[in-house]
């Protein structure tokens, strides 16, 4: 049985730093959000921090590493340059046993990076310079790479600043033509706000699976609360997965709602990658044809493990 998954997303190097709340205030940053930076602004911020850890990241890439950690068959496409960060990125993914299916070439922009600021409450605020990652285009997508895949997983962040619409359309056409299922994560509530119309079109016309947290889902459906969102989403023949932090998670499929409690942990170290690893746990079980409740539970298990560590890697 084919259980292989291919992820497409922004190839971003994660740079981890601990800061206090004052640092966020001084730099006009909203706690828990992801802000896009231009290169000059990003370099300026980099001067004022003390780097603690550097690792290959990006939302969907984190999910692919999580699936590999669970002994799943995962691949990733993301645009990198031939620079030091690009080399580190490729090496890091391959060490995690994720097949990197992008042919890197000399680029005009550097490999993307994200400074992840961790505050004392373990919340993370991301300052991201997309670099060449945002230029992933339809020319970078080779149909042959997808032919033996069961599921394609994309991230909402791909819509920021790049030639994403054409690329997304090509991927969706490949998926439909070859009967491959497609899934997308909503990434970030601000990202949903920026691209709501496009995301709704994708959800209605193309995607089989949509994954998002409570706030992202409420924003996407223009609802007052989660119950209103659920009632709207019940009308679609889709699988919608909603994460709710300590309140657990919900899946909506064929008009049915499945609820799952979260797994309590003694000490939260860092919330980076919680959603990415939840997606990994959920999708791995889904590929294994498990019941939806089991998929939610596996997502919760992986998310509970990652929030007890710094960064989005379990090994």
In short:
The chain is α/β, with parallel strands linked by helices. It has helices at 21-26, 39-47, 59-69, 84-95, 164-177, 189-194, 196-205, 214-220, 226-233, 274-287, 292-306, and strands at 5-8, 12-18, 34-36, 53-57, 74-77, 99-100, 112-118, 124-129, 151-155, 181-185, 209-213, 239-243, 249-253, 256-260.
What does this structure look like?
- With 315 residues, the chain is an alpha/beta fold.
- The protein has a single domain (5-12, 57-108, 131-306), classed as Ribokinase (UDP-N-acetylmuramoyl-L-alanine:D-glutamate ligase, 3-Layer(aba) Sandwich).
- Helices cover 36% and strands 22% of the residues.
- The protein has helices spanning 21-26, 39-47, 59-69, 84-95, 164-177, 189-194, 196-205, 214-220, 226-233, 274-287, 292-306, and strands at 5-8, 12-18, 34-36, 53-57, 74-77, 99-100, 112-118, 124-129, 151-155, 181-185, 209-213, 239-243, 249-253, 256-260.
- Helix 3 (59-69) packs across helix 10 and helix 10 (274-287) packs antiparallel against helix 11 (292-306).
Tell me the total number of β-strands: 14
Distance between the termini: 27 Å
Over the alpha carbons, how many angstroms does the gyration radius reach? 18 Å
- Assign the CATH topology: UDP-N-acetylmuramoyl-L-alanine:D-glutamate ligase
Assess the beta-strand content as a share of residues: 15-25%
What attributes characterize this protein structure?
alpha/beta; single chain
Chain-wise SSE layout:
Elements: E1 5-8, E2 12-18, H1 21-26, E3 34-36, H2 39-47, E4 53-57, H3 59-69, E5 74-77, H4 84-95, E6 99-100, E7 112-118, E8 124-129, E9 151-155, H5 164-177, E10 181-185, H6 189-194, H7 196-205, E11 209-213, H8 214-220, H9 226-233, E12 239-243, E13 249-253, E14 256-260, H10 274-287, H11 292-306
Parallel strand pairs: 1-5, 1-9, 2-7, 3-8, 5-6, 9-10, 10-11, 11-12
Antiparallel strand pairs: 2-4, 7-8, 12-13, 13-14
């Amino acid at each position: 049985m084919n259980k292989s998954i291919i992820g497409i997303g922004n190839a971003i190097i994660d740079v981890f730093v601990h800061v206090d709340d004052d640092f966020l205030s001084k730099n006009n940053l909203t706690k828990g959000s992801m802000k896009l930076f231009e290169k000059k602004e990003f370099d300026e911020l980099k001067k004022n921090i003390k780097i603690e850890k550097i690792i290959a990241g990006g939302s969907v890439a984190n999910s692919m590493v999580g699936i590999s950690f669970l002994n799943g068959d995962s691949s990733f496409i993301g645009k990198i340059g031939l620079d030091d960060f690009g080399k580190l990125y490729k090496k890091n993914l391959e060490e995690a046993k994720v097949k990197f299916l992008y042919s890197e070439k000399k680029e005009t922009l550097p490999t993307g990076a994200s400074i992840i600021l961790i505050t004392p409450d373990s919340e993370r605020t991301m300052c991201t310079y997309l670099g060449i990652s945002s230029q992933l285009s339809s020319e970078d997508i080779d149909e042959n790479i997808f032919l033996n895949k069961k599921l394609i997983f994309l991230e909402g962040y791909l819509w920021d600043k790049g030639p994403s619409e054409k690329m997304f359309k090509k991927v969706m056409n490949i998926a439909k033509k070859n009967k491959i299922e497609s899934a997308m994560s909503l990434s970030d509530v601000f990202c949903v706000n920026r691209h709501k119309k496009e995301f709704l079109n994708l959800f209605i016309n193309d995607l089989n699976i949509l994954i998002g947290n409570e706030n992202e889902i409420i924003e996407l459906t223009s609802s007052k609360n989660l119950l209103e969102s659920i009632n709207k989403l019940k009308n679609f023949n889709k699988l919608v997965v909603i994460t709710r932090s300590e309140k657990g998670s919900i899946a909506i499929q064929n008009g049915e709602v499945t609820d799952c409690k979260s797994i309590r942990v003694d000490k939260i170290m860092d919330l980076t990658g919680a959603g990415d690893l939840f997606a990994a746990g959920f999708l791995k079980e889904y590929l294994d044809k498990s019941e939806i409740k089991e998929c939610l539970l596996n997502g919760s298990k992986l998310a509970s493990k990652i929030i007890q560590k710094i960064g989005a890697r379990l090994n």
